[in-house]
Known about the structure:
Layout lengths: L19 H15 L3 E2 L16 E3 L15 E5 L2 E5 L6 E4 L4 E5 L4 E3 L4 E2 L2 E2 L9 E3 L9 E3 L31 E8 L2 E9 L4 E5 L7 E6 L6 E3 L9 E3 L25 E7 L2 E8 L5 E5 L4 E6 L6 E2 L5 E5 L4 E3 L5 E2 L4 E6 L3 E2 L4 E3 L4 E12 L7 E8 L9 E5 L9 E10 L4 E9 L3 E3 L6 E6 L2
Parallel strand pairs: 1-5, 10-11, 16-17
Antiparallel strand pairs: 2-3, 3-4, 5-6, 6-7, 8-9, 12-13, 13-14, 14-15, 15-16, 18-19, 19-20, 20-21, 21-22, 23-26, 23-35, 24-34, 25-33, 27-28, 28-33, 29-32, 29-34, 29-35, 30-31, 30-33
Amino acid sequence: xxxxxxxxxxxxxxxxxAQKHVTHxxxxxxxxxxxxxxxxxxxxxxxxxEPADGERHIVATGGEGIWTGWDGSVACFVDxxxxxxxxxAGWLAWVxxxxxxxxxxxxxxxxxxxxxxxxxxxSEIQNAVRxxxxxxxxxxxxxxxxxNRALWTALAAEEGGTGSIVSALSKASEGVDAGFxxxxxxxxxxLLGLLGSDDFAIxxxxxxxxxxxxxxxxxxxxxxxxxxxxxxNNRLLVSGGNALFTNEGSLNVAMSKGAAGxxxxxxxxxxxxxxxLLGLLxxxxxxxxxxAGYTPALVIDxxxxxxxxxxxxxxSAYASSDQHVPADSWVRAEYDxxxxxxxxxxDTATSxxxxxxxxxxxxxxxxxxxxxxxxxxxxxxxxxxDGGTSYKDRRxxxxxxxxxxxxxxxxxxxxxxxxxxxxxxxxxxxSSQAGALAGGNATHFWGMQVA
Length: 451
């Protein structure tokens, strides 16, 4: 018969043993120490100076004093002395200062939920209230980890998995958060996730209390917003005072449309109402359109590079019949028929063009001379602004000796700066005797805004 029990090594009372109570009491002491085992701590390696009777500890690595060599053992203070109880695989101990249950694996104390079996790690840890990895978990943070690196790796197909790895954070409702908080000294500097809605967002903070929206992605469309909430109508929305694209070398920003008939444009808006469009609008010519009706203001031909201003004022008029001009007075030449009148700024009733806007305008006028049986000494043709006398640099003149009836064509061309509302007409004057200007599409007046 053995002297001690197989599991707890309790001393047996031997036949014919004297002082049997000594052996019995020793067994009771061991049972008292081990049954419902609860230790104060497992972090100490030095025996306390004034331990209470019955006090128990799991000795930490590097035991000192009487605890030397007791690493991992249960030290029990009883009858004024420390007793060593060497654990066996499967022993359980509640650690009071950690509020956790440990199990001895045969080489180490580990949390009971992660106990080692003969086949390796236990597959489940269920309903754990708190888990602290390298630190203490608390009610506010029931899972806490203090570490420098963490690795999550996928379970491969040959190991019974799929090879994929997905971490899920599921919130209770749309109005609450599911996200990650990135902190500096426990003060949040960035948040990312589903923050108060089901749209993905990134927010940043300088102080942990004031947050600014950096980026958001609409959950329904995938549309992206920077500095604002996402908009279901815009694939990318940027809200802010300035935007900068920069590079140390070349910088190319490309936008490509599907086909020539599609639009590729910038819309310039005021209060979200478009006031101008510029880009490749409905074809591959570069175009600028303005106003609520998207009126074409400038077109650059894609093939030739030529520039046109479709809405710039331009007109061409001619005289339908001969006009008699008296001698020695300036008379307005009549051009009463139109070939074109873009913008409607030429009045055939008065033979006058009125400038729609401040700018530089180019004009040309010509007249076919008819003597009407007379012989004037001079023919003058010029441009008058607001009905005044034409400046000399806006006139042309032919002496009577050079005028040939129904053959001499007199022309004048001039570039004139006008204010909006100022008008231009053609003035003609014969000297000494009267004359006429030929009609029948032989006398012309045209003009256009050039700048």
